[in-house]
Amino acid sequence: MKSKTNFVCQQCGTTSAKWLGQCPNCKAWNSFIEQIAETETEKKSALEKGKLSGKKLAYENIKSISPSDTKERLKTEFKDLNTVLGGGILAGSVNLLAGQPGIGKSTLLMQICAEVAKTKKVLYISGEESAGQVKLRAERLGADADNLNFASSTSGNDIAKTIESAEFDLVIVDSIQTLAMDEISSAPGTVSQVTNCGNLIIRAAKATGTAVVIVGHVTKDGTLAGPKTLEHLVDVVLNFEGDRYGGFKTVRAVKNRFGGTNEVAIFEMNEKGLKEVQNPSAALLAERQNTDGSIILATMEGNRPILVEIQALATTTTYGYPKRTASGFDLNRLNLLIAVIERRTKLKLSDKDIFINVVGGMKLSDSAADLAVCLAIASAVAKRKLDDSYVVFGEVGLGGEIRSAFRADQRIAEAKKLGFTHAIAPAATKDKFVIPVKDLRETLIKYVK
Q: Which of 14, 102, 141, 179 has the most CB atoms lying inside 10 A of its own CB?
């Protein structure tokens, strides 16, 4: 008898008797994949077996439990990455690293393996590459420690069994989307396979105290592919972001059970692999030319202050509807700021195509970038410059008011270190270095010359 199948959304798990182009629950497109459906008899049988096989849990007083943070942490060669992880990779933890294809996930993990393998036993498991491909990368990065081992597998069962052997201190699994369990008939990368393989690996890691790093794929909009359940299961979720063809790359924790999520590690890629950038501000401003549309922003990446250049270009539109483009800055926020400039400063932008670029491939999520973007647009449209000894930061409200920014003291300290003489910043910032401003219109009139 032919098995009955249904269609399951890979984003939210919604089931349907037929294939649908868009999920009615989460609105994702092309997310339904066919799977063999469990019959009611099978479900009932599983429930009955579960009732009979259960047993009372063994428990202990909370005071007698030793904290997990006392376990040894595995240090990587990157100081800032250790900070992002909360001090290093904790024994028994499961860490998920997600990033765009080609950005350097495998390179980063091989460099981590090379450092950890100097003192600990490491296993690199790849379900995507052959042994020869991994060997070539290892040779290029100088990862030739005796304790570094390799295996090629796409079996979640085999990988979990290997981790349960407790033979290794660190296991890398590249990647979770290529794994499949023998007991599940669906294809690798589906909701059921990713969830169950993830569960198997996590249980094995917790039982043996083995540190595990799992690689995860991302969708075209930058979110982690597969079910959200996987992010809830693991201890640490790291996002590897940046331009795959150049510029800086950042690793930040969006979830961390053993540390904060406000730290960031900044890297650049060269022929010998990834290298930490110790002074990103100086590197980002090294080739700057003070032209109209160029403004220096004092921003924050986690707990680290960075100076970046915001560039704006304004040209007369040749179409009926002006074009707005942003690289490294939220397009919706840009449209909002353009509306504020037009309404509160009387600067005419409706016939201008406006382009914004954050130099160095950085992606800004700092609300204090508003004032710098507004000054860059006004400078480009008016063809006037801001004094090259000024840095700028501050949030702009819909009324054109300039609001305070968090960690202003760290932004100011970074600007002073690089030789800037003043900061155009919200009036609430109390420092002699700051030129206090309250209103966007007055700021543009007074300082864009």
A: 179
Q: What is the pLDDT of residue 58?
A: 82
Which tokens go with 160? 């979990």
Task: Read off φ and ψ for residue 136, nearest 5 degrees.
Answer: -60, -40
The amino acid present at 221, given as its one-letter code, is D
Which spans in 54-100 are helix H? 79-84
Nearest to 159 by CA among 138, 185, 177, 181: 181
- Spatial separation of the C-alpha atoms in residues 444 and 390, rounded to whole Å: 14
pLDDT tens digits, 43-76: 566 556 656 667 787 888 878 867 654 567 899 9
Beta-strand relationship, 304-316 and 294-301: antiparallel
Distance CA 35, CA 186 (A): 6
- For 237, other C-beta atoms within 10 Å of its C-beta total 22
Task: Give the three-class secondary structure for 186.
Answer: coil
pTM above 0.85, yes or no: no
The alpha-helical segments, DSSP class H, found in 394-439 are: 408-417
E strand or H helix at 341: helix 331-345
- Determine the distance from the C-alpha atom of residue 71 to the mean position of all C-alpha atoms in its chain, rounded to a whole number: 27
CA distance linking residue 213 with residue 76, whole number of Å: 13
The string over 46-81, giving b where at least 16 C-beta atoms fall within 10 Å of a residue's C-beta and e elsewhere, is eeeeeeeeeeeeeeeeeeeeeeeeeeebbbbbbebb
What is residue 174's three-state secondary structure?
Answer: strand
Work out the average pLDDT over 180-195.
83
> Going from the N-terminus, what domains does the chain have, and what CATH number goes with each?
5-53 (no CATH), 71-278 (3.40.50.300), 282-447 (3.30.230.10)
pLDDT tens-digit profile of 408-433? 999 999 999 999 999 999 988 888 89
How far lies 202's CA from each of 58, 92, 197, 301, 448, in Å?
20, 9, 9, 31, 57
Q: Which helix (H) or strand (E) holds 263?
A: none
To which residue do tokens 């006037």 refer? 384
Closest by CA position to 210, among listed 173, 176, 181 = 173
Helical ranges in 121-254 per DSSP H:
131-141, 156-164, 191-208, 229-233
Burial class (CB in 10 A: 0-12, 13-18, 19+), 249: buried
Rounded to 5°, the CA angle 316-320-325 comes to 60
